[in-house]
Amino acid sequence: MPELIPASTASPSPIVEADLPTVRQYLLDLFCTVAYREGDFVLSSGQRSTYYINGKQVTLHPLGGVAVGRVLLSLLPPGTQAVAGLTLGADPIVTATSIVAAYAGQAITPLIVRKEAKGHGTQAYIEGPTLPPQSSVVVLEDVVTTGQSALKAVDRLRQAGYTVTQILSLVDRLQGGAELYAQQGIEFQAVFSIQEIQGRARELGSEE
């Protein structure tokens, strides 16, 4: 596995050139070392939790962004025309995935879904190029808890005329999100479960 070197001195070449299992392991360890924290937290859903995952510590990390893009691109179903997500958490994720896709010779449009309509100009909910009606869009998320954030993005995209049948998340906290998506008939896949992150975090802690 590539060494978790500081972002300020990191070279992207190992993550750019490594095979996908190595990139996935790197991403898991990055979540454990820079994003996962234990304590007493209040989540955006209002729930209290004994742990917190700050996904932006990974998605805005220079090597983390490359790893995120590579892993998520590998999970996109054939025919995907765009990736989208609710601002702010999904912004770096959709961008990274689109850029990695371009280097792989694929055109995947990144779309950002606003929580509220823009207060001026077009007053749009969705930022990015306008695609043909029924274009296939996959919604991306960093961390899924109850699932409401990604579902809001799905609703906005469908209202805009796009076809959305799948959500991909970097982490599933296993607190109802998957069940909600199943009820809505939306396919869901997470790169990591919270159980995998916590298990690996314990392993890394025992190695120190």
How would you describe this protein?
The chain has 208 residues and is of the alpha/beta class. It has one domain: 3-Layer(aba) Sandwich (Rossmann fold), CATH 3.40.50.2020. 41% of the residues lie in helices and 25% in strands. The strands form two sheets. The chain has a six-stranded mixed β-sheet, with helices on both faces. A two-stranded antiparallel sheet has the order 1-2. Strand 1 and strand 2 form a beta hairpin. The chain is globular, with a radius of gyration of 17 Å. The relative contact order is 0.14. The model has no long low-confidence stretch (mean pLDDT 91).
Indicate the topology.
Blueprint: H1 13-17, H2 20-35, E1 36-42, E2 48-53, H3 56-59, H4 62-75, E3 82-86, H5 91-103, E4 109-113, E5 126-127, E6 136-144, H6 148-159, E7 163-172, H7 177-183, E8 187-193, H8 194-207
Parallel strand pairs: 3-4, 3-6, 6-7, 7-8
Antiparallel strand pairs: 1-2, 4-5
Spatial order of the strands in the main sheet?
5-4-3-6-7-8
Please write the string of helix (H) and strand (E) elements.
Answer: HHEEHHEHEEEHEHEH
Mean pLDDT: 91
Total of domains: 1
Under the CATH scheme, the architecture is 3-Layer(aba) Sandwich
Distance between the termini: 17 Å
Total DSSP E strands: 8
Classify the fold: give the CATH topology: Rossmann fold
List low-pLDDT spans.
none
Structural Rg: 17 Å
Dominant shape: globular
Q: Percent range for helical residues?
A: 40-55%
Query: Proportion of β residues?
Result: 15-25%
